[in-house]
């Protein structure tokens, strides 16, 4: 009997999502509708909106739309719009509204409060995408 050493492999949510550019993200958002929608609020121990945007894009593995990956200078809040296709061909859209000034466990650290809303054509896809943040 042969024995083989396997390396640890980490599979994340982003490995199950294909980036898709939606030229009119808002129209796609309305088209999918709120039937399979999940909304939650998080406090993230991240110091800047720019860093938060980069991390969310990385964790979700989705395409930023409507130039929402660019945070204007001096802003205390921002909305990020993402689009992708989850396994099985299910469209997934994410709206992340972020604001500086959330309270973190470290009083000197800056935190971001984020309201995350996910819509998809498939209910299980919404749950999986939401798990990327938790």
From TrEMBL:
<dbReference type="GO" id="GO:0005793">
    <property type="term" value="C:endoplasmic reticulum-Golgi intermediate compartment"/>
</dbReference>
<dbReference type="InterPro" id="IPR012295">
    <property type="entry name" value="TBP_dom_sf"/>
</dbReference>
<dbReference type="GO" id="GO:0009306">
    <property type="term" value="P:protein secretion"/>
</dbReference>
<dbReference type="GO" id="GO:0030126">
    <property type="term" value="C:COPI vesicle coat"/>
</dbReference>
<dbReference type="Pfam" id="PF16381">
    <property type="entry name" value="Coatomer_g_Cpla"/>
</dbReference>
<dbReference type="GO" id="GO:0006891">
    <property type="term" value="P:intra-Golgi vesicle-mediated transport"/>
</dbReference>
<dbReference type="InterPro" id="IPR032154">
    <property type="entry name" value="Coatomer_g_Cpla"/>
</dbReference>
<dbReference type="GO" id="GO:0005783">
    <property type="term" value="C:endoplasmic reticulum"/>
</dbReference>
<dbReference type="InterPro" id="IPR017106">
    <property type="entry name" value="Coatomer_gsu"/>
</dbReference>
<protein>
    <recommendedName>
        <fullName>Coatomer subunit gamma C-terminal domain-containing protein</fullName>
    </recommendedName>
</protein>
<dbReference type="GO" id="GO:0006886">
    <property type="term" value="P:intracellular protein transport"/>
</dbReference>
<dbReference type="GO" id="GO:0000139">
    <property type="term" value="C:Golgi membrane"/>
</dbReference>
<dbReference type="InterPro" id="IPR009028">
    <property type="entry name" value="Coatomer/calthrin_app_sub_C"/>
</dbReference>
<dbReference type="GO" id="GO:0072384">
    <property type="term" value="P:organelle transport along microtubule"/>
</dbReference>
<dbReference type="GO" id="GO:0006888">
    <property type="term" value="P:endoplasmic reticulum to Golgi vesicle-mediated transport"/>
</dbReference>
<feature type="domain" description="Coatomer subunit gamma C-terminal">
    <location>
        <begin position="14"/>
        <end position="133"/>
    </location>
</feature>
